[in-house]
Every structure is written in C-alpha cells, then in structure tokens.
Amino acid sequence: MNRVAAVDVGGTTVKAAVYEPVGDGLKRVAELRRPTARGADPGSAVADQAAAMITELGATAGPIAKAGVVVPGIVHNGLAKFSANLGFRDVPMADLLAERLDLPVAFGHDVTAGGVAEHRLGAARGFGDIAFVPVGTGIAASLLLAGRPYRADGRAGELGHVDIGHDDACGCGATGCLEAVASASAIARRFTERSGIPVDGAREVLARQGDPDADAVIAEAVDALAAALRLLATLLAPEVVVFGGGLFEAPGLLERIDDKTQLTFQRKPQLRRAELGDEAGCLGAGLLALGATR
Amino acid sequence: MNRVAAVDVGGTTVKAAVYEPVGDGLKRVAELRRPTARGADPGSAVADQAAAMITELGATAGPIAKAGVVVPGIVHNGLAKFSANLGFRDVPMADLLAERLDLPVAFGHDVTAGGVAEHRLGAARGFGDIAFVPVGTGIAASLLLAGRPYRADGRAGELGHVDIGHDDACGCGATGCLEAVASASAIARRFTERSGIPVDGAREVLARQGDPDADAVIAEAVDALAAALRLLATLLAPEVVVFGGGLFEAPGLLERIDDKTQLTFQRKPQLRRAELGDEAGCLGAGLLALGATR
C-alpha cells in the first residue's frame, strides 16, 4: 500500500486528497474540502483539522502510508513561521501534526509545493530553471533553480513586492510593488475604484474588454507583469515561467505580457499557463508525502 | 605534488598564479601578469597565452598537477559563448586548452569563480545564500544559492541590467539599468559630463566629497545600488551581499547603501566588502582546478 494523503491549507478552504502513485504521476482516488478551521490557537486548530481530514480519508479510501501537509506564509524547518492570513507565528506545525497522526507526515510550503507539482506533473515538465507564479490575492513565485526549490529559509520568491516603479501603496508598507497593481485582488479593486462598479474578481474585469476603465486597469497590470518578467529574466534567466490563477484563463493575456516584455540580451523565457489549476498545492503535498521534495 | 595553476583572463590583463592547497586555503607560491593577447582568432590567442603562462609558471615554480582558467562573458559547457570585450563567440575554450596542455584543465567563468572564492576563502565564508557583486566597468552578480553557483547556462546574475527606474540609456539598449548610473565607469563618466572635469576612475570622484557634482553623482549611484539590493532581498533573500571593486574602499559607502535600502518584511542581508580584491577570480580558478567547483 503506497497511497498518500495530501492536505493543502488555504486561507478559506482546506483541500485534501488521497493519491496513488502511478508511473511518474499521481492518481487521485479520494478528495475532501472543508472551510479552514479557525481558533484562539490557530496552529492547533489547523493541525487538528488536517489530522481529522487525513483520518477521515483513511476511513473511506483505505490504508494510507504517508501524508503531506502544506500551508501558506513563511515556512522553514518544520515551523509555520508566519501567515498573516491564518494567524500563524512560529507554529511548530511538523510536531503538531506528528503528535496527532500515526503515520509519517511531511510538512511544507504551499506555493513551493505547487511549483514542484507543476515541474513534475504540469506545465514545467522537462525544464530545469523555473519560476511558478500564482497570481491571486497576492503574487509570489516558487523558484526551482537547477531543478530544486530555492527557499532561502522560506524568504525567497516575493515577486509581488519587487518595485516596478508606480506610486501606489502596497499592504507591505512600500510603494511600487507588483502585486499592488497586478494581483487578481488589485485588478478588481482598481477597476471598482475607477468605475464605481463592483465586481466579483479580476476575471469579471477581463471579461469587460472594450470598457475604458477595464482596459486601463488591465493594461497597467500587463505592463507590471512584463516588468517583473524582465526582472526574472535578467537576474535568474529561467527557461520557463508558469503563471497560475484564474486570471490566465482569459484568452491572450500571456501573449500580451510576452509582447510587453522588453528584453535586450536576456534569455527569453517561455511563458506557460499552469496546468494543474487549484490542485497544484495538493498534488505538491502528495509529492512531499512521497519524499519527493523537502 | 598537488600544486595548481590558475589563470584569470581579463579585458586588459591576464593574471596567473600557482597555488598550493594548505588546510582549507590556497597559498600563492608564484604569480605572473601579462597584457591580454589579441588576435584575428581571439579564442586561439587567449588559449595560446594561457597555456604559455601555465607552462612558464611550471618551469619556475616546479611541477603543477592541474590548472584552472576563467574568462568573462557568457560561459557554458566548456564554451566561451560570448564576450564583447574579448571578441569571443562560441569559442570551444575547454577543448583549445586541453589541446595545448599536458595536464587536466578546468574551464569556467570569472565572476562565478570570484564568488566561489569569496565563499570559500573570503567575505562570504560560512554563508549559504550569497550574492557577490563586483562593481567595475559593468555590474554582474555571482549568485551562490544553497551553497552552489546558480548559473542558468551562464545567463544568470545580470544585476547590472535590472531596471531601477531612471531614464538614462544603457549600452545594452534599454533604459533604467543599474550599471548605467552605478558602475565605476558610469560614476566617472557622469561626473565628467556634469562638471567638465576629467577623472581617472570612480575613486577619484569619491575622493571629491563636498563637490556638488561629485556628491550628486554618488548619491544617485547609492540610490541605484540600494534599489538593486532591495530587489535581491525581495526575490532571493541572500544572507549576505559581498560588494567588490575599488569603489568600496571609500569609507562609509556600504553604510550609505545600507541606510538607503528600504525593506519592509524582507530579510535584511548583511553587506560586506569583498576580501580577496582583484585576486578573487584567480583564486576561484585555483579552486576550479582543484575540482572544488564546476
């Protein structure tokens, strides 16, 4: 029995699945979603919930050999060091999980795991130097350099906070940050600020092509993403940059970013849309469980 | 006999040395400098010269076991793929050297080798995530991530060409590049443009503290280096950034850059002055010869 349980803890939803290794891939044999547990002790609340979901999956899907759990924020050495969203501060998550479960549990970082999954199973298969850039509420990059995650103690890849030269303030306290104009949340918020029209996310803004407010906000996001891409190409020269997030389902968006990226001598990265969608983190947790990643 | 010969080919000078491994270090037992050879076939001219210098050192310093040769530009897989300065285009340098010498020769990249030397023997000893930033005619970074050189086929680390948001043109064809305002050459050139006073390099500009033109040019270079440092901290979170080049012998320059680097949540890198001076590349070639690096 070599099935693994995988848990991806998000800000609003916890996704869990049981995977069976098949060839180089993972076959999903069961899944479960729950609203993320909150509590006075956020670390224990999440550890309790993850352990309960793994136990529940084991009861329905049959014996599980190992488990992997991933969370957002700053993760290093078994600690969930910080997550504004979940309220984590130096939570010894690896230990909390080990105390609650009778099987080996690997613990890691959600965006890193998602990048590893896109590398092994998705849009970055076959490449060595990779940036996986999920664009959602914020923007982070999972960097896989020479085939392995580069983590810098959980501090690397904060692409959302590179200065691309605008004057808008960012939640981090600086101005000019990429994510202040190009995250999905920023696109929706900036459209509503300009137009007075409330929208339910960036995809709705992208669907309003031809509306001058929508076009202006999207053009600024495209320019900002192109500037960030130039930066990645200059400093890290990735072979491929994989963009994730519902935003990129809009036709032509990658091509627009590509057109706006002004390279001179730099190696031009291939641009790809993520293939694993919102399952990337969970698949990455499955690979982590298999010991495929640290 | 475990002595190694090391050759660092520069745009104007070739430095060569014989080193003897002593403990973790390298003891220099002989050295030689020559103006860089030029010729209709620049690759053969440099290979001839490097081989002749190694042979000459062997004749004076006694038996040599192995050799290492490093060159500037884009270096990958034994090829000197490109160097504007030396006129290299896809020169099979590793093969040219092997044909000319009767001992094992390792071939590599000068700035990468310098970074490895600062890591093993110099200012970055004991760190894992390192940027070595020599500031000279241009600005490049040697990135050592999780303890090893990150190369991206010789394309990584072009820190001199990140856009830090000014309007000056760069030799690469873009505007806004770091090195267009902060390289040693740019500092000297920009001072002369403002003041009409010719100077023999950036150190002379730094020595003119209190002169409004010198102060303005240096303040702009400091701001640009601080912006580049923020980018490194955001994307790669190095533990230490080691600056090289005669410029940094000016007292207080590192502290000024540090003061201007506006970080919010990012890990603050330690800033250090390089310790190995203009011998870093040659020492790195020696380490390369020992098989200590790729």
From TrEMBL, chains A, B:
Transmembrane segments: none annotated. Signal peptide: none annotated. The keyword rRNA processing does not apply. SUPFAM superfamilies: Actin-like ATPase domain. Pfam families: ROK. It comes from the Bacteria. The keyword Kinase applies. Keywords: Kinase, Transferase. GO terms for molecular function: kinase activity. Belongs to the ROK (NagC/XylR) family. This is Glucokinase. It comes from Amycolatopsis xylanica.
